[in-house]
Amino acid sequence: MPLSGRYDALVIGAGLNGLAAALVLARAGLSVLVIEGRETIGGGCRSAELTLPRFIHDICATIFSLGVSSPFFSALPLAEHGLEMIYPPAACAHPLDDGTAVIVEHNAANPLAGVDETAATLGPDAAAYRGLIGPVVGHWPALTQDLLGPLPLPPQHLLPFFQFSLRAISPAFHLAKALFRGERARAVFAGMAAHSLLPLEKPLTSAFGVVLSAGAHAVGWPLTKGGSQNFVNALASLLCSYGGEVITGWKIASLDELPPHRIALFNVTPRALLNIAGQRFPLSYQRALQRFRYGPGVFKIDWALSGPIPWRAKEVARCAVAHLGGSLEEIAASERAAWRGEHTERPFVLLAQPTLFDPTRAPAGKHTAWAYCHVPHGSTVDMTAAIEAQVERFAPGFRDLILARHTFNAQQMEAYNPNYIGGDISGGAQDVMQHFARPVPIRPYATPARGIYLCSSSTPPGGGVHGMCGYHAARLALQDLGVDFKPHNSPRQR
């Protein structure tokens, strides 16, 4: 698809990070073209009728806690471009086998009160929970500046960052055992930490547990009205108001296909970057991209339902998200199995039930829900029965509500989105070695080839719907060009 004219910047991939990078560049006054391989923009934030007509399903991301916490996204006038966020009464639920559930509360007027409300349900661990999560919630806006980027040396907010890091580096399994005496606190913390896609015995998994818990209290776990597609649609609309352009249905396989440009930012994995531009890189950088490791995949189910999920613990219906896995030990065993290349009959399941709060996603009186579990890298095993058994465990009668289902195994997830190598939705294993060295430790967004940058979730701070990988990559590109970034520039019309 050859184009006439020359652009200052090209962005390859119209997911959250690609659009974030494009917005930074366009707001700095550059002419920008975004090229998307699929017919629809969005990457991990697309929505579609996967099961039945008028049942709208988010293909990957639904919850935007990091999106509304993002120092970049939170400053954008996205509401002016059609974005409407919905905040459920509580953030997340963790049902237990005794018929109760731990509810992670969000109090918009007083986030620390939400911490106290949750802590009050944790019995002997109330003080320990407040001590672990409360300081992070209290410094949330400041800490996100340091946490959502490359390794901050030195951190902008030294004391809060240091206090956070002391606990964050610990393996979540060991921290939960050492800090909490009761099963309720251990279980809810394990569910949060399991978002890391790492065995809970690995260092740094506590960082995921603390950050996701704190974000739930600080800003809630909101969703986008009408589907996650509307979040990226708003970003694209804003980009166009700044003179940026977006083309879909054009998959780039070689640098030779690109129209004339000064810089190019790639919202792709290291593997894809190597295939597209490897001939421009020295052997040492090629090897660094080849060494980049990808983690476990996911198996995902989307359901069209005749009614709301019948939770035994009724309060689970106050949340858009439920973590299904019972105890710390059970969750840890599930995550350990996926890392070892094994499947388990009792997987840890992450479930979303958006239509409880957004009826626009389904016909009147009907509902959608989705769930996924972590599976070995590249798995083709059908986990439908295991996932539905976990839901039925905490919501007897759930199966009777299923009108239709759609599934993705790990290989199918990669076929749908090439950035999900082996079904890894985080853009690469995010253990200690690859948390900041994504894919290299120094200037991780830049490549040795002049004018070529990496802006995907395979760069810091990694996976999540925050857009900060694209933001930081674009800021570095502007710095290399000698262009000042003025975040409140007027729109530029081409």
Overview of the molecule:
The chain is α/β, with parallel strands linked by helices and 494 residues long. It has 17 helices and 16 strands. It has helices spanning 16-27, 65-69, 111-119, 126-138, 140-147, 158-168, 172-179, 183-193, 205-219, 229-241, 270-277, 283-291, 328-339, 384-394, 410-416, 432-435, 468-481; strands at 7-12, 32-35, 47-48, 57-58, 85-86, 90-95, 101-105, 223-224, 245-247, 261-266, 297-305, 319-324, 349-352, 367-375, 402-408, 452-454. Strand 3 (47-48) and strand 4 form a beta hairpin. 55% of the residues are buried.
Number of helices: 17
End-to-end Cα distance, whole Å, is 20 Å
Please state the structural category.
alpha/beta
Instruction: Determine the mean pLDDT.
Output: 95
List how many beta strands DSSP finds: 16
What's the layout of helices and strands?
Layout: E1 7-12, H1 16-27, E2 32-35, E3 47-48, E4 57-58, H2 65-69, E5 85-86, E6 90-95, E7 101-105, H3 111-119, H4 126-138, H5 140-147, H6 158-168, H7 172-179, H8 183-193, H9 205-219, E8 223-224, H10 229-241, E9 245-247, E10 261-266, H11 270-277, H12 283-291, E11 297-305, E12 319-324, H13 328-339, E13 349-352, E14 367-375, H14 384-394, E15 402-408, H15 410-416, H16 432-435, E16 452-454, H17 468-481
Parallel strand pairs: 1-2, 1-10, 2-9, 6-12, 10-16
Antiparallel strand pairs: 3-4, 5-8, 6-7, 11-14, 11-15, 12-13, 13-14
Helix pairs in contact: 1-10, 1-17, 3-4, 3-9, 4-9, 6-9, 7-8, 8-9, 8-13
